[in-house]
Amino acid sequence: MGFFNDPIHFIAAWLEGLFTGWGLPAGLINVILTFLGVFLVANFGMLYVIFLIWVERKLAARMQDRLGPNRVGPYGLFQTIADIVKLFTKEDTTPEGADKAVFNIAPIMAVVSVLLIWAVIPFAEGWIGTDLSVGALYIVAVGSFGIVATLIAGWSSNNKFALLGAFRTVAQLVSYEVPLVLSLMIPVLLARSMGIGSIVEAQTNWYSIFFFMAPIAALIFFISSIAEVGRTPFDLLEAESEIVAGFHIEYSGAKFAMIFAAEFLHAFTISVLTITLFFGGWQGLGDQYPLVAWVWFMVKSMMAYFTVAWIRTTLPRLRIDHMLNYNWKFLTPLALAVLVVTALLDWLIVNGFGTTETIWRPAILFAANVLIGWVTYALLRRRAAQRPARLVVGTPRPVARPPQPPAQPEPEAAAD
Amino acid sequence: MLDNWLFVGLMLVVAIGFPIVPILVARLIGPSRPNRIKSETYECGIETVGETWVQFKVQYYIYALVFLIFDIEAVFLFPWAVAFDQLALFAVVEGIIFIIILFGGLLYAWNRGILEWV
After folding, report:
1. Nearest chain A Cα distance for residue B22, angstroms
2. CA–CA distance from A7 to each of A47, A130, A291, A296 (Å)?
3. Average pLDDT estimate for A167-185
4. Of the candidates A96, A129, A175, which has its C-beta nearest B63's C-beta?
5. What's the ipTM?
6. pTM of the model
7. Subunit contact A115:B29, Cβ cutoff 8 A
8. Distance from C-alpha of A300 to C-alpha of A285, rounded to nearest angstrom
């Protein structure tokens, strides 16, 4: 175990030897090392956000044919740091009618809910905070905290726009939790384990990554995760053009920075979860070296994050009834259908015929997914044909024109 | 087992500390000159009228109820998915029947127009 091969475990082993040499009790050494691990993971998350904000702004700018931040530092890299300095030296106002305790707790809860997810994310083999045996359930449980944070932020601000944001939170985030949880169940079912580490290790071969076994579930998970973050196709809770800034309208300074950082970290967390659950996580060529595996992890998750940013800059906002219909009448039934079919087929393939490590399992499940997708598409086409979409174009009407000056009488010819 | 939860517990402490420290630092270094106008509710520059903390529309409760049913379903199904290898075909089919019954519930709600946004 050399330093360049696995620096984290190398340093951990060195520190453990050092502390044992000092004569500290084993329990205390364990707590200290765990704390250092926690600090490393949390720091990675929070510091990476600084970089992510720059990435997202640059990407959005390029996609909209702008330059983006380019003044502070090379390529505008230090723009976010300048923003942080600005936000921290800004006055932190609390509206007088607000419920102050709840108002102050909300940004903290938003960060906590996202950071806690990172405790079970595997960065490489052995580089995992803690491989909980109930990892998937833990992610769902901790992620729900974020919904409460958004809700209480909107409610406690004593502001009508913020309250509208809170209302929409209930409708949107709570609804999209359903397909999220149902599609999260499919990797759990395929890996026969709720531990995130074991879910990654179940996707060893290139053909056994769960995207091939459950492409529809991967899409449902990705879409409903984006809705959970509240990014642009689903940004009804902070729709700038409708309700100013939605639930965080009254926040300023450091508290706003925390809500903002939590949102960006959440967007990156869903990219990480998508690649971990469906694209083999850190696995790739040369992943026996943890550093290489970590590079794979970062490359894959940045690609997923690029997709999130791409969707954000491309799609317009959905109307609230369309958004809810999309969830309850499309994603949820589809997730249930995929779950039923995958459960039955996978049991038959693995336990019925005993074919685990062959290409047949992904092949059959992929074919079943294609079939489900085709049936869904046919049903949607039929429904669309039954109810032709109303054209939202008004009848032509006279255009208002500025009042014309009264017609001048023709200047009479001077002659006569 | 306890070691696993030690990490989560310490993570909770650190995760609470991470936002609190910047907020406190910002309170120290940032100015604090509140006045009556500054701490008014911001509603696009127009004075706020009436009570803000009104009742939620009943529609939201219905969505929350439907959500509750499906989330509890998920809690029941996760152990079923984990123990898949030890199950007989009978148990698998029974789990599927459970899902189908819940799907019937969704169809009922759909049919009654609960899922329509009004």
Report:
1. 7
2. 19, 18, 8, 16
3. 85
4. A175
5. 0.86
6. 0.86
7. no
8. 13
